Amino acid sequence: MAERAxxxxxxxxxxxxxxxxxVPWRDVARFAVTIPAPxxxxxxxxxxxxxxPVLGAGVFATTGALAGxxxxxxxxxxxxxxxxxxxxxxxxxxxxxxxxAAGGGWLPVVVVALAAALAAFVSAVDAALSLGALQLLxxxxxxxxxxxxxxxxxxxxxxxxxxxxxxxxxxxxxxTEPGDPDRTAVAAVFTRLGELLAAAGTAQAxxxxxxxxxxxxxxxDRVIRSRSHLAGRSRELAELAGVLNAAAPLVEGAVAxxxxxxxxxxxxxxxxxALAAAVAGRQELxxxxxxxxxxxxxxxxxxxxxxxxxxxxxxxxxxxxxAAVPPPRPDRRTRLHDLVDRTVASAxxxxxxxxxxxxxxxxxxxxxxxxxxxxxxxxxTVAIVLKPDFGSVFTRAVQRGAGTLVGVLIGxxxxxxxxxxxxxxxxxxxxxxLLPWGRAANFGLFSVFQTPLIILLLDxxxxxxxxxxGARLLDTVIGCAIVLVFGYLxxxxxWRAPLDxxxxxxxxxxxxxxxxxxxxxxxxxxxxxxxxxxxxxxxxTQLQRRLAEPPPVSTRAAALWPVIVQLERTSDxxxxxxxxxxxxxxxxxxxxxxxxxxxxxxLEDDIRAHRPPDDAEIDADGVLAPVAREVxxxxxxxxxxxxxxxxx
Length: 648
Hints:
Layout: H1 2-5, H2 10-18, H3 25-34, H4 37-46, H5 53-70, H6 77-99, H7 106-123, H8 127-145, H9 152-175, H10 181-199, H11 205-228, H12 235-246, H13 248-260, H14 266-280, H15 298-315, H16 332-342, H17 347-369, H18 376-385, H19 393-417, H20 422-441, H21 443-461, H22 467-489, H23 499-519, H24 522-547, H25 553-582, H26 590-608, H27 625-637
Helix pairs in contact: 2-25, 3-9, 3-20, 4-5, 5-6, 5-9, 5-21, 6-8, 6-9, 7-8, 7-17, 8-18, 10-11, 10-12, 10-13, 10-14, 11-12, 11-25, 12-25, 13-15, 14-15, 16-24, 17-18, 17-22, 18-22, 19-21, 19-22, 20-21, 23-24, 23-25, 23-26, 24-25, 25-27, 26-27
């Protein structure tokens, strides 16, 4: 019944359910070129695929390129480089750690267990480090069983060369990209708003309204999909979701203006285009907002009101929350507390660490004692299936097993029909080209294309006979069985992700934070703030677990994410309001505080009951005005119909 209790707004669910993932053609080309290129250079230098130091250098450079090319997934360049650096850095560390995990005895068991514990806690920090934690485990497993003529230093060095090559192709890809697709899609909403306002009162208004609806759908779809593919929180995507949410009043006012046939104020048209340019990063948003309208047509006043609200979020001026000074950067102690809340203080993180350590330890024991060929594949399978992002163990194990089965069959066919020459590189390029599309679809399809790529690469490093394919399949089955038994069946609390309970707790903690912020002592405010942010962290953790499930669970969770973003923005707004009041701002009206608290409490009930809130905006002024805006944005978001999508 818990699964049926919590539903995202119907229009968001419909959006993410009915729009298939597009083929990322630019990534397809980048993967096809980047991954096999280092090996192709080694084959050209060696004059063929002959075992030796040159071929070993090519293999390790290719593994580095694979780690580096899988890391970036859109967004600003700094985020892409952070993910690439995390993947390459932790992958290189895994190659070093794996040297101590080779052979038999208790030392490899302890090394693997410590690496698993480190990966579990690191993965809870953010999306980039979660990716790096996975690479730590993957390359620890590979290094424990992969024997090459290279020294450990040379292996890590060539791995770094491959990662640097992948970074270079990422920079080229970014430099030739028309723009960040997520940010461009959100900016297009404001461009279409400007066009709709310009067309108001003309015959082109209806076409402009439909184009706005399409742009709004596309923007939510892109941002939600991008978030669902990340293994953790993204500040950039959260900001874009907040901008989309804040645009709702402007969308409603523009649509009403077009339907009424009232010409829009040219200042509002220019303001919408200025917002579009600011979101796209083409120019800074002017500091002065358009003036508030006290008189005139109601639709014009609604447009100006919505424009000013969006201006606050996009520009984020210092006047937000009435503060005369910008919010200070959290001190080191506060940042340390937040880090502890996400890692060792989180019950879910600790439980996941125990599960991951147990599974990797059992896999290491199996590697040492089971009579199977190249048993490090068991460790590799456990690391990938029990991916350190709190995802669904059961579905990943099933998808990984099924995807690997198909991938092994494809790899076996390729090994049997392809000669050991350049045709192997062509096959690797083909499998690499399909990885971006498979990753966007689901984990199983990604495994279908990743498995033959890795089989071909490892067969070049360590040539094996036809029986290697069957051994690889057996290793995969053993690894999936270890995960299902020791990482799933023994932990009944992991069989479901209580997103509804986490949302209820986050709403309750936010309500208490609002109360303590304006009526409590400084110590009570600090405790309430920590409880609120800890509850929001737990909510993000439960969301991440749902995102790893197959549809329809994952699509419902992804559709709910913009609402979660609004809760986080509301908590931030409360913090800023406290700062504003502490710097001479007027004390908030207790009656307005009570209205805000009631709205926060009712919001969670509205989501759970799939009940649209009323259209009335919360009346608040002074330091409470930004808090009210964020709560209003969340209330609009959960209405049954999206702004601009209403019938007629």
